[in-house]
Amino acid sequence: MARQIDKMDFKLLDYLRENGRDKISSISSKLGMPRATVFERMKKLTNEGIIRNYTVNLDYEKIGFSVMAYILINFDSKSRTDQKTLATDLSRIDHVLSVSIISGGWDIIILVVSQSMKELSHFVLEKLRLMEGIEKTHTITVFDSIKG
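Now predict its structure.
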């Protein structure tokens, strides 16, 4: 059962999403919480699995990945694999940023980055569509990403 998160936890989590590398003393100062409180809450949120990891938020264009796309995938129910295994396999492919099993007219959505439209085309046509368990795909290119 999910634990109730209080206002202070949400305040801390929101701050950490944007400033995860700040020192505890800086977080404490900016949020108006004692250092010991910040430390204990961060430790508790991590131990409970609410904070899964600390990571970086890359600007992919600055490192040569100027094309970002969401790819919707229909699962082939006649395949020898299952949907969860397919999603796990997709998550292990280079340049796949996220994989979600979804409801509606599609079964899986992935977010990918590539260096060019040609590379994205190659990925979809010669890799994804040949994978066991994929019936069809629909690619949606991203013009601009506002947050995240």
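The mean pLDDT is 94.
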